[in-house]
C-alpha cells in the first residue's frame, strides 16, 4: 500500500492507520416508505451506489482493514431527538412515527437496519448516531483512537448531509479524509457535485476524493 490516486493530489495511505467508514446505508434512506421518502425525495437514486459500496467494503475486508458502519437513529423514547429536528419541515411521517417499515429512524426498527447486502459482519463496529455527524453524542472518536485509526475513507449517504458533516468533524479533529466518489450519493445530484468540489478545493481543505477503482487498487 502506498499513495492512492486522488484529487486534488495523491492520498498518502498508511495501512495501519486506515479504515472505511460507511455512513447510514439504511433502509430508511434507500427504500420507499422510509425517512428519505417521507421528506419527498426520490430514493431510487441511492440504490444505484450499492454495488460500489459493496465492492469497497469487500476490498477493505480482503485487505484486513477495519470497516466501521454508522446508523442515524434515535432511542425509542425519543430522549435524544431535539424538537428542532423532529419538527423541521413538513414530512409525511416524522421521526418516531409508525411507517411501513416500523417507527421512522428508531433504533431496532426494520427501516433503521443497514441494507442486507452491506450488513456488518462479526467484529465490525456499528455506531448509532442521533445527529448528522458521527462524532456528536457517540463513541466514534474513542473507537478510532483505540484502534489507532487516523485516516478515514468515506462511503454512504447522503453526500452533503451525514457524509460531509462527518468528514468536516473528522478533518477538524486531525483525521485525513478521503471520499469514494461512486460510493456516495445525494437525493440532489447538484449537491453531490458541489460537496465533492468543496471538499477537495483549496488544496484539500476538508479532504480528498477518489474513484472506487483507484482506492481498491491503492489498498492492496
Ligand atoms: C439525512 C443522512 N440526509 N444520513 N441523513 O438526513 O444524510
Uncertain stretches of 5 or more adjacent residues? none
Termini separation comes to: 6 Å
Continuous helix count: 9
Q: What characterizes the major β-sheet?
A: 6 strands, parallel
Q: Which bin fits the share of residues in helices?
A: 25-40%
Strand order of the largest sheet: 7-4-3-8-9-10
Strand content: 15-25%
EC number: 3.-.-.-
Protein name: Isochorismatase family cysteine hydrolase
Keywords: Hydrolase
Domain Isochorismatase-like: 19-207
Can you describe what's shown?
With 220 residues, the chain is an alpha/beta fold. 34% of the residues lie in helices and 20% in strands. The strands form 3 sheets. A 6-stranded parallel sheet has the order 7-4-3-8-9-10, with helices on both faces. Helix 7 links the parallel strand 8 (151-157) and strand 9. The longest helix has 16 residues, at 189-204. The radius of gyration is 17 Å and the shape is globular. It binds dicarbonimidic diamide (C5J). Dicarbonimidic diamide binds at residues 24, 29, 72, 132, 157-158, 161-162.
List the helices and strands and how they pair.
Blueprint lengths: L2 E2 L6 E2 L5 E6 L3 H4 L4 H4 L5 H4 L2 H13 L4 E6 L10 H4 L11 E2 L2 E2 L21 E5 L10 H8 L3 E7 L1 H14 L3 E10 L3 H16 L3 E3 L1 H7 L2
Parallel strand pairs: 3-4, 3-8, 4-7, 8-9, 9-10
Antiparallel strand pairs: 1-2, 5-6
The structure holds dicarbonimidic diamide (C5J).
InterPro entries: Isochorismatase-like_dom, Isochorismatase-like_hydrls, Isochorismatase-like_sf
GO molecular function, one term: hydrolase activity
Protein name: Isochorismatase family cysteine hydrolase
Amino acid at each position: 500500500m502506498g499513495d492512492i490516486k486522488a484529487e486534488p493530489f495523491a492520498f498518502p495511505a498508511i495501512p495501519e492507520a486506515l479504515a472505511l467508514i460507511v455512513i447510514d446505508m439504511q433502509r430508511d434512506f434507500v427504500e420507499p416508505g422510509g425517512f428519505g421518502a417521507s421528506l419527498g425525495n426520490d430514493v431510487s437514486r441511492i440504490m444505484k451506489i450499492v454495488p460500489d459500496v459493496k465492492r469497497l467494503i469487500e476490498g477493505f475486508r480482503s485487505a484486513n482493514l477495519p470497516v466501521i458502519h454508522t446508523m442515524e437513529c434515535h432511542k425509542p423514547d425519543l430522549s435524544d431527538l431535539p424538537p428542532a429536528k423532529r419538527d423541521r419541515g413538513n414530512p409525511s411521517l416524522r421521526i418516531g412515527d409508525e411507517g411501513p417499515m416500523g417507527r421512522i429512524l428508531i433504533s431496532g426498527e426494520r427501516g433503521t437496519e443497514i441494507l442486507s447486502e452491506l450488513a456488518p459482519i462479526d467484529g465490525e463496529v456499528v455506531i448509532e448516531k442521533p445527529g448528522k455527524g458521527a462524532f456528536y453524542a457517540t463513541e466514534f472518536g474513542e473507537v478510532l483512537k483505540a484502534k489507532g485509526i487516523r485516516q478515514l475513507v468515506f462511503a454512504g449517504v447522503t453526500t452533503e448531509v451525514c457524509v460531509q458533516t462527518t468528514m468536516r468533524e473528522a478533518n477538524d479533529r486531525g483525521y485525513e479524509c478521503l471520499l469514494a466518489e461512486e460510493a456516495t450519493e445525494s437525493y440532489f445530484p447538484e449537491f453531490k457535485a458541489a460537496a465533492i468540489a468543496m471538499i477537495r478545493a483549496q488544496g484539500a481543505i476538508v479532504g480528498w476524493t477518489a474513484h472506487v477503482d483507484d482506492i481498491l487498487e491503492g489498498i492492496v
